[in-house]
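Appendix B. Raw example, untouched.
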Amino acid sequence: MSIVRLPGLKDLIENISRERNLPRLAVQSALREALIKGYERFRRAQNMEKRHFDEEYFNNFEVELDVEEEGFRVLATKNIVEQVINSDHQISLEEVQEFAGDAAQLGDSVIVDVTPDQGEFGRMAAMQTKQVLAQKLRDQQRQMVQEEFQDLEGTVLQARVLRFERQSVIMAVNSGFGQPEVEAELPKREQLPNDNYRANATFKVYLKKVSQGQQRGPQLLVSRADAGLVVYLFANEVPEIEDEVVRIVAVAREANPPSRHVGPRTKIAVDTLDRDVDPVGACIGARGSRIQVVVNELRGEKIDVIRWSPDPATYIANALSPARVDEVRLMEPETRQTHVLVAEDQLSLAIGKEGQNVRLAARLTGWKIDIKDRAKYDYEAETTKFAAIAAQHQAQIAEAEKVDEYEEVDEYEELEEIDEDQTQAEQIEAAQNKLETALKYIQEFPSNLEAALKNLIEENTEAAEKFRGLMIESSLSALKQLLERLVDLSGAFSTDVTISKLSGGLESGGVTVESLLPLLR
């Protein structure tokens, strides 16, 4: 068999494998694909018959690398035919029998050596091979990086500064001990203002995203400004968090404040179920030893550790630390608006420099916080104002519900009476459809309660028959009210108790939604 010599092939594969951190088999695979593209270029240049080559024309060709002899061969899989129409895909039976004997049959496939002569593989084909090889090697690298780091997304890595591109810092990270380094980008928006990025300086970074596709530049996007970095640092320093005795409930971070006159700051809410553990003290440590390690890693960033509370008023008061709060008024719970009353000398501390303290507290708690001077606060006027706003809000909700009900009435409420000849299966189907329609108007309906109601509809009992009739005959608004009452009941007790109470109520005569509601308390 002929061969096209590639002097230094073995060393070339070794060098590429070492420089690009790729396995030798991956380099060989990329080289084979590049050489077949080079052969295609050679064949197109030699196309004397002006034959049209589509994308799949060369699918029956392959390249065989011979690393020991430092060269390659081109092989083609051809079908045995009686009369050859396309010599690239077909070979005559007579020609095959010359070297294979009578074993060859029409319709069989044979592999034929079609390697060109050493001198025929011209300069254009070699250039094509070089270009394709470079592209295939880049693709292999990107695929390996994606496979290596996709499971590490959302974790913290050790990074080393390599160079600077525009406003971004290019850093070297690795996925573990002994693994090769991979480039990652730290954009300007993800940097900390107090960091000093100099060549070979090391930082802990949060792996924010592993990019896919063919875009240029590093695939890994890392951050020093993400809240996940703070969570990791505390979990690393506080054993109680690692052991799940103390949990981090919420984090609000402003690593790049809108003004250069304000420094970066973080508020972190912690809690515990162990009465003997102080979660705030556990995070701060003896004489601030634990929190100081986190502050040093974040280059002096200010960190407030506060105690989480299920009571919104207490939680908001804690979140405004270090300011002393006199009173928290939850003015509008539905829209989560609150007034926080503080003494005059605590106003600036509660608001913070350029509003940073109250801004972070609002982000941490999820409430819109309005800081007020207690001495100047008018209780009556503010209460009246919010009562009017609440009444207007409720009126808008009621109007919207009424409009929705009118829109659905033609489709869902003008139901025909149940035929005496209607089968039980048809009744079950109609009741299930009506139940599903009513459930669309209730958010976060418990799945176990929904399953229990559907099972009740399908039962062959007197209570189930009455419930089916109730489902079909009742209006959509009445059913919504009944289902909401069942949700409240299952939350207070359990699904089994709820279904039991519902079944008991259905056993009375002349049952309606209105007669059931007082029983479901």
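End of appendix B.
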